[in-house]
Amino acid sequence: MKRQAATAALILSAVLLVTACGTKTQPTLAPTNSTETGAKQTNKTTEANQTNTTNETNDNTSPKTNTQTEENVKLVQFTDADSGIQVQVPQGWTKSLVSGGDYSGWKFTNPNDANQSETVVTSTCVGCYMDANNKADPTLVIPKTATDPQTKASTATSVTYAFTASGNTNPGLGKVVVSTDKSGYAYVETLFPQNQASVSSDVIDSLQLNR
Length: 211
Hints:
Layout: H1 2-22, H2 32-61, E1 75-80, E2 85-90, E3 94-100, E4 103-110, E5 113-123, E6 147-154, E7 158-165, E8 168-178, E9 185-191, H3 197-206, E10 208-209
Antiparallel strand pairs: 1-2, 2-10, 3-4, 4-5, 5-9, 6-7, 7-8, 8-9
């Protein structure tokens, strides 16, 4: 009996030990991966937002194109009784005198862009525009400052030409008119932006020499 009781006690102890080991609580793993992933996603979103904000800021602070060349040039009538010249000129532009030898005139310059100008000149030189046959040739008095002049239209007493000016990207347009009584000539040249080509044409068409 004593042996059987001892054996039963050993078996019971073994069962209790196995049971205790089987019910041992397993450690809980913190979701570090998901937390780190969420943090990384948050950082990426923040960085993207910062990048977008920076791009928007850069776009807003980018230098804007000068709108002066986009504005229409307003023309007003200009008349000089002494020279007999009549032509349209830009309103509000700075006027300065030009002269030399047998010519004189005016230069009108855009106060906001020195590359935009209109020059009006008259001359009392008659022989300057007479050819070898003593016939008027307006092309002979196209200013030498007009680089590579290209004739666009001509008559016996006038010539309209396109040209380029050194150091100036604006297209040039000019016109020479000679007097019918051999008392001299006049010319006008414009250096206006390309989008003001029609205004340049209006200036050219308005030139008159009344002598």
